[in-house]
Write a structure and sequence with these properties.
Layout (H helix, E strand, L loop, with lengths): L6 H17 L6 H9 L2 H4 L2 E3 L5 E3 L6 H8 L5 E6 L2 E6 L2 H10 L10 E4 L5 H10 L4 E5 L2 H13 L5 E4 L14 E4 L8 H5 L11 E6 L2 E7 L6 E5 L30 E2 L10 H10 L4 E6 L5 E7 L5 E4 L4 E5 L4 H14 L8 E5 L4 E5 L6 E3 L3
Parallel strand pairs: 5-6, 5-8, 6-7, 8-9
Antiparallel strand pairs: 1-2, 3-4, 9-10, 10-11, 11-17, 12-16, 13-14, 14-15, 15-16, 17-18, 18-19
Helix pairs in contact: 1-2, 2-6, 9-10
The structure holds S-adenosylmethionine (SAM).
The site of S-adenosylmethionine has 25 residues, from strand 4, helix 6 and strand 6.
């Protein structure tokens, strides 16, 4: 097998990575530890693209060593590109471990898991190693990814249900699912996922774990099929978006810089580099793009922020802002900053999500706190 240059060496390198994940506290569950030790990531990631877009591959003598090192490091690796943009990756193993542990699966009870975003098939292999072939369903929209993942899964002895489908619709044919795990970012929870969750309101209720904005949210059913609630987990989670068409996820061209009158603002450039504030912005304005100017110490001094609707704001080093476009983007950022500072700069773990028939709301410090409606 071309991607298996030295099985013993790969096993040793994988064991070292697993030990590092355990030492850092990201991999604590012995059953997931065994899965990470056994499933060979290098088979699922036979090549990737570096930050210059160069292909680093097991089949290329010039890049083979770099490839072998990278697949055994705690790195996210871009594995698919469309029009110059990254459209699939093998996620960072530490993030995968965090998500799999947060999924709270139980062994030996026939739990069924739906994964949205098959990608390389590596995460599906980890799930299948632990839960068995019949318990895992994985979907992706990219036909070539699905075909390659199927081949690699078979090669490594795993046979979950691998389905070419738009994950926004889940996979009703094999529902209900005890767990749904998304490995791509959502802006709101697709109603199909809620409908395909296992019934129940107690500890047996179906659960969804997904990157929503820049963090992971875990919600469980609280009543009828469209009622669910849960909390965000600490720390960030930066995933590719769930695509609704071929162009989603490809960076939006920056609109022309605003030339209008500058006004003062209380939002400092440093806030834009604060992950906690950025999390709130990822909820309030999910599709922002950014550029910064940094000083010698690497601190932002100025920034441009824009949205796909053509709205742009430029924050200048003197603390003023200029704007252009169909609405005031900066006012949204200012309002979010006011809430953020009034509540002492909360991280994602202080937010939660409530879903019912009418709306999906992210709240801060409880369902009665400040809240933001998610757009479907
Ligand atoms: C970070 S990658 C997934 C990594 C994967 N779990 C693995 O172990 O390699 C995100 C994946 O989500 C997929 N994706 C994006 N939009 C999707 C959609 N609407 N339905 C299903 N998959 C989607 C992408 O094609 C991509 O493969």
């Amino acid at each position: 097998m071309t991607t298996d240059p030295d099985l013993a060496q790969a096993t040793t390198r994988r064991a070292a990575l697993v030990q590092a994940l355990a030492d850092s506290g990201e991999l604590t569950d012995p059953a997931w530890r065994t899965a990470f030790e056994r499933v060979p990531r290098h088979v699922f990631v036979p090549y990737f693209y570096d930050h210059m877009g160069r292909r680093i591959s097991a089949d290329d003598a010039d890049t083979r060593d770099a490839w072998f090192d990278a697949v055994h490091e705690d790195r996210a690796l871009v594995t698919h590109r469309t029009g110059g943009a990254a459209t699939s990756s093998s996620s960072q193993p530490s993030v995968m471990a965090t998500m799999l542990e947060a999924l709270r699966v139980e062994d030996g009870v026939g739990m069924k898991v739906l994964e949205i975003g098959t990608g390389t098939g590596y995460n599906a292999a980890l799930l299948t190693h632990r839960l068995g072939n019949d318990s895992v369903v994985t979907v992706d929209t990219e036909p070539d990814l699905i075909a390659a993942a199927r081949t690699r899964l078979t090669e490594t002895g795993y046979e979950p249900n691998v389905v070419l489908a738009d994950g926004a619709h889940g996979h009703p044919d094999l529902a209900p699912y005890d767990r749904i795990i998304a490995t791509c970012r959502i802006d709101s929870v697709p109603p199909a996922w809620l409908r395909q969750l296992t019934d129940g309101t107690g500890s047996d209720a179906g659960q969804i774990l997904a990157p929503l904005g820049n963090a992971l949210v875990r919600i469980h059913r609280t009543g009828g099929p469209l009622q669910a609630e849960g909390c965000f987990l600490p720390g960030g989670a930066y995933f590719m978006p769930l695509r609704h068409g071929t162009v989603d996820g490809i960076p939006v061209r920056r609109p022309a810089l605003p030339t209008g009158k500058a006004r003062r603002t209380d939002v400092p450039a440093s806030a834009l580099a604060d992950n906690a504030y950025r999390f709130l912005l990822s909820i309030v304005e999910p599709h922002l793009d950014w550029q910064y100017d940094l000083d010698d110490a690497g601190k932002p001094t100025a920034a441009r922020v824009w949205s796909p609707d053509g709205t742009i704001a430029a924050l200048h080093p003197d603390g003023t802002v200029t704007e252009a476009g169909p609405r005031s983007l900066w006012s949204r950022l200012e309002e979010a900053y006011r809430v953020f500072t009034e509540h002492d700069g909360p991280g994602p773990e202080r937010y939660g999500l409530t879903v019912d028939h009418e709306a999906q709301r992210v709240w801060l410090d409880g369902p009665g706190g400040p809240c933001w409606s998610l757009r479907p």
